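Dissemination and training. As part of the outreach component of the grant, students in the summer workshop were shown how a complex can be specified as a set of sequence lines and then modelled as a single object. The example used during the hands-on session is reproduced here so that future cohorts can follow it. Participants entered these lines:
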Amino acid sequence: MTTFPKATIEGYPRIGANRELKRALESYWAGRIDAETFRSTARALRVNNYNHLRDLGLTEDYAIPADVALYDQVLDTALTVGLVPGGVDLDEEFALARGNDTRVPLEMTKWFDTNYHYLVPEIEAGQEIKAVPERILRIVEEAAEAGHKVRPFLVGPVTLIALSKPAEWSLLPSLVEAYAEVFAALKEAGVEWVQIAEPAVVADLSTPDAEIAQHLRSAWSALLGRETRPNVYLTTPYGSAREALPVLGELGVEALHVDLSPWTLEADAGYPERVRAAVPDSTHLVAGLIDGRNVWTANLRERTDVLNSLGRGADAVSVSTSTSLQHVPHTLKAERNIPVEVAPWLAFADEKLAEIQALVAGEEGAKEAFAQSDRAVRTRAESTTIHNKAVVDRVAALPEGAVKREPAFKERNKVQREELGLPTLPITTIGSFPQTTEIRKARADHREGTLSDAEYNEALKAEIKQVIELQEEIGLDVLVHGEAERNDMVQYFAELLDGFVVTENGWVQSYGSRCTRPPIVVGDVSRPEAMSVEWSAYAQSLSDKPVKGMLTGPVTILAWSFKRDDVPLSVSADQIGVALADEVADLEKAGIKVIQIDEPALRELLPLRQDDRAAYLEWAQRAFRLVSLEAQPSTQIHTHLCYSEFGQIIDAVAGLDADVTSIEAARSKMELLEDIDETFHSEIGPGVWDIHSPRVPSAEEIAGLLRAALNHVPTERLWVNPDCGLKTRGYKEVEPSLRNLVAARDEVVEGL
Ligand code: GLN
Ligand code: ZN
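and obtained this result:
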């Protein structure tokens, strides 16, 4: 048998160093290129990546993984094994992902605790499962034609069902048959190694850990018992396996990957020891030592210690990343503006490949790499630019534990009512208004330097004026300035805060063709000057109605950034919290009476393990409360959440202690209101307009949702608002929808 490569990675960014796949996808969807052009572009990109990875040192056979989905790896696997039908036709594949005239898209949700989103297969007991092995054979063949022996990639059967809706375990035996068919086809095509990811073993999912372990045993003993199959490389990224670890050890796969990243070991320090005990020498061990989802230069000495602690001879262990590198940008080489001091501390995907090879070579064989790593570790620890004593002291002086704004909601609410004088069922929006082509162009021109600061400010103010006038004319009650100045709700603040570094080209796939450029928290965070006051104050000067100040909360800023690995997340969260508290104070001074602190990502950082969740929610809640801790009782603090099912964390949302909470609800038909009475005692705005769709909701429909809400929430605590910001919509939908919001409210109030 071909031995497993010594150096490998779990996956590589698919989107292209210059986002070529994104452009090709969007051109194809828009009808600008035909299917053949699209396919050949995607093929060229894949082959380029293989060549590039070989140039970077992945020269052994099967060292290069072919995780090459066009839209999403879960959808790709589901189509290949036929758990979801539609794997033959490109347009059907995209219809599943994006919807079309006749079908709604599959639901999308977060992939483990990353910012990547996968498509959730919809499955049912007794359904047909018909594999389409051609899909994966094509990938193998095209690679072979270009001279590469790549490792085809699939999500494993247990994880695939665990992530589907519902998790229909009765399908497992027939699903295993489909995998067996794909395996046989691969073997016949001459493939010697296949890579199968089973991260279901590292998370507490709807199926309990112990059951996952059983399913793993039954699925894999069946699959491994097949005669015609490639060697199986089973991987367990995104955390440590607990109950399933002994089972993984006993399965008898040819190679097993474990996630030994610093992040994982921080949560489970004993993991290497347990791995050593559980995995027999007959199974080749692949140590996921290099962090696949953060951007810090590895401490090669410390990583070598972890490698050695596995107690394996050099031939019985390989080095890899902890997860696919799809979660980090391609290369530092594409960056021109990273401070010279910071650059050596960073490793993006390509730089991580060098780290892997250094670990394989060992200190003797890679003296320079080890010396560089030592220097990075030392200069980062000693740097005076990223360590800010004033910030550290300020946070250390804060009261410990749960802080609480005084007076309590009831009393604040009285003052706020008098101060604001709002009507029954007040109407507001979530913040952003449509980002018009003109605004995007102004921002781009400003960045390029062809539009001066003064001209750019003029353009923004003109936009704000229009947005305010429109809201006045339609008759909304609490206005917003529209967020025209923000490219992105996190990036905007990261650029203005000290302690962050932003990239020019650090694109990371979020889902499908969507990419984000996460900022990097490099050090202690502070606010050199006001960030949003100018815009909010200008907007307020144009209206007698209250204009909401608009901030992104500390948890969301952190969730959508690359995080520090030298302090706990809670430390950065506290620092961002107090920086934003200063912004709240400045907004108040500028006459802003309502301030919204968005926390759409509160659910996203929820740890994968049940045991770790309470501690997370505690610091997350604290960081949020720090922002409003010193706010005047008369200042009405709003928060906004979206993107997920809140059932699990609804108590924590209530615990943010905002005066008003707006929350996504329209699509789920207000399901979340069921037991809201017990948890929520403050004011609440369940979204009554699904802004994720271009549809304009009628006034009757909105009125219906409001009446439904009134069954659970008393009149004096209910707000009227859309599900989320309006930046992705156009004015032609926004205007009539907002008018319908007003009409619906008026109608409902009349009937009270
Ligand atoms: N205030 C932001 C906006 O309206 C909130 C966006 C979000 O929740 N994702 O765009
Ligand atoms: Zn939202």
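The radius of gyration is 27 Å. Students were then asked to discuss how this feature might be tested experimentally.
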